[in-house]
């Protein structure tokens, strides 16, 4: 859960990142920026700001902001039966993001998991994305990502987004955001 | 068919529009900008510049540029049997675009079809998109669009893109670009 004040502060910070990235949002969009704190009460370290542009049955597009060194925790988008899980392409628009996926561990990775959550970060192949660079994640791929020291703005192009089906490595995590007062 | 010189000129113009929109492309992307002249030999009026970021079986994302008053001609993305046609969301990033779809004709529309092609423009409900504004087109929806006087940059978020299945109102149109010399 985050406070209304924290929501406002982070949403305003996200707007500044969008502006730096040259991304124009409508007034209505600025008022519905989402803050994900993943239920860990430590949004500065484990958290994500985002605006969802469109999310139909077939296509989703969003623009995510991570503050400097902020982390989106490890998770995957599972397939269920014949229904394939979410596929997503991350495209860095501003700053730098380090993306971690399964595979041979990168020696001396740039990032460390948030303090106290180390046990829930298990994939260590590092992919560095600078503006204009992108990476496609297919369903059932464990991944996590962290912004570099300047923060980052990342476009996500994907199939339908259903946050409630995401599988996080950390069992403490709740994806659905809770805000302490109505906003 | 367009000449190599025309390709280079339009690709460079597109790069300038991307820069104005704050969109960063990699060097490799700048070298594979696509110019669609639709086979009408009049690319300044009927044409489109674009870069495809990703096009998997499920998701496609691209960034389109239209020069001032340049038009993407009327077409639709048909469903075939049980397979639904392409769904696409246009999001204006820079300049202004006028999108035309089926529905009640807008009085005094801002655009006119390219000279000599008037017969092949049949839908006249006008949707004006300025930066940050977007519109979603579901399959089988006839549409065309034209840039305003400053040109435009438009992101497209969609299902898999298969240009060869597009149905154009104008039977003279060929979607697959042809360039007179290898590039």
UniProtKB/TrEMBL annotation, chains A, B:
Top-rank taxon, per record: Bacteria
UniProt keyword Hydrolase present: no
Gene Ontology MF terms in the entry: D-lyxose ketol-isomerase activity; metal ion binding
InterPro entries, alphabetized: D-lyxose_isomer (IPR010864), RmlC-like_jellyroll (IPR014710), RmlC_Cupin_sf (IPR011051)
Alphabetical UniProt keywords: Carbohydrate metabolism, Isomerase, Manganese, Metal-binding
Signal sequence bounds: none
Requisite cofactors: Mn(2+)
Reactions catalysed according to its record: D-lyxose = D-xylulose
Keyword Metal-binding attributed: yes
The EC number(s) this enzyme carries: 5.3.1.15
Family that this chain belongs to: Belongs to the D-lyxose ketol-isomerase family.
Protein name: D-lyxose ketol-isomerase
Species whose genome carries this gene: Lucifera butyrica
Classification of source organism: Bacteria, Bacillati, Bacillota, Negativicutes, Veillonellales
């Amino acid at each position: 859960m985050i406070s209304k004040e924290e929501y406002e502060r982070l949403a305003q910070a996200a707007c500044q990142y969008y502006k730096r990235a040259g991304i124009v949002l409508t007034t209505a969009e600025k008022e519905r920026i989402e803050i994900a704190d993943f239920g860990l009460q430590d949004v500065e370290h484990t958290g994500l700001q985002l605006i969802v542009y469109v999310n139909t049955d077939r296509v989703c597009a969003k623009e995510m902001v991570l503050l400097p060194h902020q982390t989106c925790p490890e998770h995957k988008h599972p397939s269920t039966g014949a229904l394939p899980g979410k596929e997503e392409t991350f495209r860095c628009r501003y700053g730098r993001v380090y993306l971690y996926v399964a595979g041979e561990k990168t020696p001396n990775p740039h990032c460390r998991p948030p303090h106290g959550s180390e046990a829930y970060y298990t994939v260590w192949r590092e992919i560095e994305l600078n503006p204009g660079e992108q990476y496609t994640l297919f369903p059932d791929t464990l991944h996590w990502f962290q912004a570099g020291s300047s923060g980052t703005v990342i476009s996500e192009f994907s199939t339908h987004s259903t946050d409630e089906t995401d599988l996080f490595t950390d069992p403490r995590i709740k994806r659905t955001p809770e805000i302490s007062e109505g906003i």
